């Protein structure tokens, strides 16, 4: 690519200073519909003037221009320009008296928004001789090294004639579309008297979508134009004046295509609500194709965009069928609170909700409950299922390797109830979550804490009539009636917008020249495993590549993991440690970022957690499943030969059909247990040491708050294992601040790259196959058992997965 660019640059500039044809300018004569130089405003004439401009496009565009030159009544001169990214076609017709000619042009480009090259081929039909037409080859170059400068060069090579060259330079003093000052120059061997050789001018866009353009040519020819954009439709007009200030002719244009800034929004203020449908699972990422699910980052961005959009006065949310974990729900609620701070309104519809759903709804100015709906304020608990008796009945033995007070991941297999330490840490988290929800609901709905406690402990189930009497909701209605209610409350009928159609998501990139810097949001989601869960084997490459990519200015690592394989966690952590200081790394902790999930987090420059995030659990644990009687009950036998005292450790039989790994024939000997204890305690010390280094805390202090204990995010702040209370959007804001990036002048990218589509969904309902969305976190008992048997005997930083993702 670089060699091709160098060749084209040399080729163009060679043409600029070679022998030029002694005829009127081909370039200026061809481009009289232009408002500015090709690289100064918008996208020029879509590759007709400079084919390299096609690399800056984002979608399909059609533009029709015409002129009243030589005739005020007939459409004698017109041009049609069509383009998609990197490809363009155009035709321009000119008539003079009884003669006419039609010029055709096919153009293509390659490159990006910082540097691109292009090539076009033009041909003509009609009275070619009268209009002095030749087949025309054009090469173009566009360089935008940063947002303040655009440089373009064009070489025109007509058949049977020598070439001419053209360069243009545009400068944006403010780095955006408000003002562009430009100039251009034509290179020829000889100029005719009064011929256009250069021009200079300016484009001003003080109001979005309203552009004023003026241009002065060396022969005192002047043009003045206006373009009005209404989004995907725009209109333009330009007057062409002689040096005596007399109107020579006018040109006009209509464009339809990719979205643009809209002047219409100034006449459409506060007349709309953004309409959100939260049906289904809220995931972290979506498949690129055929996936209409909601993702957390998209919802947060849409709410923020609605706040900034002057045409939006409120948000209406349908929560029916919503599936979302507690931490994501808190983030959405905080985003809605921020939306309301702009004086805008939130209306939430609910049908059947528990305490979590009501917690989200309570932020609303108006809560609408379905007449057949109900609210259940059941409170909170953390519980778990114990399998010790089941294992005993099956004839499966299990030995727990536990040396740290709160590390309880294996209790489900070693006990029949919670240990005192596990109950203590879980009760603390339940209390923190309950207090968070109670305080927020009381503040926003006007209840006292005593009233809320009474709701939870006395009635707790509220049908529609009760909910109205208790002021839990504001009115009863179906979702289809919500729009009429809003019109009644606001004394004005509102329009409703799909959040994807808000202005922020439908703007062109021409407000920023060149490739925008990026912030990478990298997801470490699920169990810490090499080839499942976080997929550490490939994720480590995504993290390293993000450090190596100069366009990526900061990394936000979103962690939602209960841990697992220490190697998988450490692969990611070590890459972060090795590259520390190259660029800001902000860790955003989701619902669970504990044990191996905290291992992933500890080297972040800033750790951001929600108040209800489950974090820390700095510790390790192990366990050993083995056969006691199951093999005999099933009628299996095993046999082996060996060399080595411990070679049979781990040997056993596999369970057929369900593809679950070996169940060892025996438990560990005392000697082997001593070795396991040594490994486990050594890994614990290593974990503590790494956390103390990453968090700049003393070893003894980390040990005092560790021992495998989980904490809520609110405690994490006090204990210095978390830096900021917030969500994913807060982490992105911190990354932006640390890099000095300005809102709207950077792009967010997500890693790993989302898959094209959910192939397994195509098999849904076939031959008993149960499908799943890989971007959704949920507990699967069979997969958990398989994971544990595959890692049987490994020392692991792990939480009890089954108790977290149900």
Instruction: Give the overall pLDDT as a whole number.
Output: 89
- What are the low-pLDDT stretches, counting only 5+ consecutive residues below 50? 9-23, 763-776
Number of helices: 20
Q: Please indicate the percent range of residues in DSSP E strands (runs of 2 or more).
A: 25-35%
Q: How far from one another are the termini? A: 50 Å
Q: Identify the overall geometry.
A: elongated
Structural class: alpha/beta
* Assembly annotation: single chain
How would a textbook summarize the main sheet? Answer: 14 strands, antiparallel, barrel
What is the tally of beta strands? 36
**Rg (CA only):** 34 Å
Side by side, the strands of the main sheet go 1-2-3-4-5-6-7-8-9-10-11-12-13-14
Classify the helix fraction into a percent range: 25-40%
Brief overview, please?
By secondary structure, the chain is α/β, with parallel strands linked by helices. The chain has 20 helices and 36 strands.
